[in-house]
Amino acid sequence: MKTGIKTLESVVFLLEKEFKQFFRDPGLPKMVIMFPVLMMLVFPYAVSMDIKNINLAVVDNCRSTESDELVKNCTSSGYFNLVTICDDPSEAMVMMEKNDVDAILTINPDFSRNLVKEGTMSLGININTVNGTKGNIGAGYLNSCMMKFASSSDSASVEPVSGSIVTSTKYYYNPYMDYKVFMVPALIVIAITMITGFFPALNIVSEKERGTIEQINVTPVKKSAFIICKLIPYWLVAFFILTACLLIAKVVFGYRCAGDLSALYLFTTLHIIVTAGLGPLISNYSENAQQSMFITWFFMMIFMLVSGIFTPISSMPAWARAITYFNPMRYYADAMRSVFLKGSTVIDVWYDAAGLAVIGASMLIAAIRGYRKTT
Amino acid sequence: MNAIEIRNICKNYGDCKALSDITLDISEGEIFGLIGPDGAGKTTLFRILATLLLPDGGNASINGTDVIKDYEKIRCSIGYMPGQFSLYQDLSVEENLDFFATVFGTTIKENYDNIKEIYSQIEPFKDRRAGKLSGGMKQKLALCCALVHNPSILFLDEPTTGVDAVSRKDFWNMLYRIRESGVTIVVSTPYMDEASKCDRIALIQHGRIIETGTPEQIKESYPYTLLSVKGKPAYPMLRFLRRCPGIISCFSFGSEHHAAIDPKTTDERTLAGLLESNGFKNCRIKEIKPTVEDCFMQLAGKVTDNTLRIK
User: Fold this and answer.
1) What H or E segment, with its residue span, contains residue A57?
2) End residue of a domain, out of B167, B184, B214
């Protein structure tokens, strides 16, 4: 009982010290403010997967009203820059080789005749896929332009071919395919992981480096109390960043969280438990800031790349998908996106909560074990 | 009564034997010096006694409490000042002191008498960040922080390394005053001249204690006659002396050489004659009393000889 009160007292003093040091640090408080602001204002624009400005060359061998119409249709979509209209396919090919052109649309001489007579289009599409993403998406856009043109000219000139399948696409949860709204919860995930996982590790290691940890170790302060006091300030920072990011999303982009805000905070808390183990774990195995930076970097890269933040997990090969099950960011990112975009409740994404809880528990056990070993 | 009892403590770092079979008794209220060169194992022994490191074998007790089992109890009754300055550089002088007082569950006020004399010297700078203090002031602050919880035993690991001569003298005066209040002080140092300032010393080399006792006892136990030999040129003379008959050992001490001789085979006069006839100039030889350093060299040599012979 008495020792309990003593521990609590020392926690208060340790926290006081941590906050004093935090606010005295020349960079940290500014960084905490700037981090969410920069992240939310810069990255959604810069790291966009929307493909624009695809340079298009048209080889028009038909030169008819219809072909003219088709080209106009494509350029008016806003995705394409019409670089040139020429007659010679080899000329367009040379331009593609020089990287001046991303896509070539070839219109055959019988285009307008076929269109009017049979309702079919004789076209060719060549795509430069040095940048695979841009090429694929560009081809998709070009195709949808063709489809649109076909359907509009249907009613005007030709009878629809019987039995042809008409598909219409409707996008749920993100109707305009806005990449920014998709990235906002993901950026929160990255920010929270950085702040709560790696900053405490650096902080603990720097006490090791300066030898101050020795001085603390000869006091009656419990190691657990010392570690918790290292973590708490960053937890507060994490919730501050979460709130700031949500506010910026609302004010600047007008994005509202579709689900319950409390669910976002709950998942953030769960994720913090995971990173609470990660920080001390890293500091256990590194003697100086450089080492801990490197380990941090290593984990962060793996976590981010196989988290489903940038590329969907479902398109990964089976072995990579297996790795993602050990990645706390996978669960956290999935939960945050589901809640933010779809309005899922905690019950809907219970598996994410369970995944985080299991990883969190094992991380904490590993961290405590490792800590005992080193002393 | 013994404040600290060390029994057969061993510690290895991989293949390196940092400490082997250390047994020591340190009595209450004395200044005990652990004297040895860098790498002798002083810091390792301190870290074991300060409950920061577990020994591989043996045991030690402080005030009758075991350092391994009851480390929490011990931490409240000892003060430890590591060799490297390890207070919070971004906290002020007063904040550091206040912090270390509070984590021990006490206040500066409560134990102000303990630290008054030292703290009053740095109090004018109490709002200055610890990182901005001069070396001497940092040391005083570290001593205050180690004393603020009223420990009965103080461990000072190389407190005078890298400190100027005046500050060193100051520092020793502070230690005497702390001793007056009944605190046992264990201090390590690589400087042999500081040995005579301690009440009792232990000489340590290669992780072994080679001698313990008061500085006087150790000096008295020196088995040979010691001569101080001066002359030019110095280095060829040292080599020459080592080959002379009756010279047991010879080391250079600053501008002179200390030669241990066997009085049966040689004496001052024969040696002087030998030196003169071999072309050394300005030779001056006189008998001197051994210092702790002479004893250390002699004892260290003996230990190495023994281990070599065993091999």
Assistant:
1) strand A54-60
2) B214
pLDDT at B307 > cutoff 80: no
Nearest Cα neighbor of B35 from B288, B213, B225, B240 is B213
Domain residues of chain A, as ranges? 2-47+177-374, 54-157
Asked if the structure places residue B294 within a domain, the reply is no
Within this chain, do residues B173 and B285 fall inside the same structural domain, yes or no? no
Which amino acid is located at A165 in the chain?
Answer: I
Question: Widest CA span of chain B, in angstroms?
Answer: 73
State in words which class domain A54-157 has: alpha beta
Token pair for A24? 């005295």
How close B213 comes to chain A (CA, Å)? 29
Indicate the DSSP class of residue A159.
P
The verdict on a CB contact (< 8 Å) between B82 and A215 is: yes
Q: Which residues in B lie closer than 8 A to residue A13 (C-beta atoms)?
A: 99, 102-103
Domain-terminating residue out of B214, B239, B270? B214
A45 vs B158, residue with greater confidence: B158
Structure tokens at A313: 């997990």
The predicted model gives A125-152 an average pLDDT of: 78
Where does the pLDDT of residue A355 fall: very low under 50, low under 70, confident under 90, or very high at 90 and above? very high
Q: Which residues of B touch A211 (CB under 8 A)?
A: 82, 84-86
What is the extent of the structural domain holding B231? 223-289
Residues 214-273 of A with CB under 8 A from B: 214-221
Q: Looking at the structure, do residues B254 and B284 belong to the same domain, yes or no?
A: yes
Shared domain for B135 and B54, answered yes or no, is yes
Chain B positions in Cβ-Cβ contact with residue A375 (cut-off 8 Å): 54
Q: What is the DSSP string of B16-58?
A: EEEEEEEEEEEETT-EEEEE--TTSSHHHHHHHHTTSS--SEE
pLDDT at B186 over 90: yes
On chain A, the residues whose CB falls within 8 A of the CB of B128 are none
DSSP one-letter code for A251: I
pLDDT tens-digit series, residues B227-279: 888 887 888 888 888 888 888 888 888 888 888 888 788 888 888 888 888 88
Chosen for mutation from A8, A213, A218, A230 (greatest number of chain B CBs closer than 10 Å) is A218
Domain count along chain B: 2
Task: State the nearest Cα–Cα gap between A5 and chain B, in angstroms.
Answer: 11
Is the ipTM here above 0.95?
no
pTM of the full structure:
0.74
CATH code of B105's domain: 3.40.50.300
- Considering the domain architecture, whether residues B203 and B227 belong to the same structural domain is answered as no
